[in-house]
Amino acid sequence: PASSVDAERAFSNGRLQIGHLQHGMSSQTFKARVALGSWRDTPFFSDQMASEIIAKAISR
Q1: Number of structural domains in the chain
Q2: Quick check: 52 pLDDT over 80?
């Protein structure tokens, strides 16, 4: 089940990214990085799955 701790961690990780304009990335990429960061180290989302998603997105 989701909790406020999960949301707080996601926003904390997102804040560490600073912002998409400062890193020269699109807002879509920035949102994806925040989402991936919030799923990191959970039993629902493995590092392998993240790698596959990123590789697929890059090849488009």
Answers
A1: 1
A2: yes
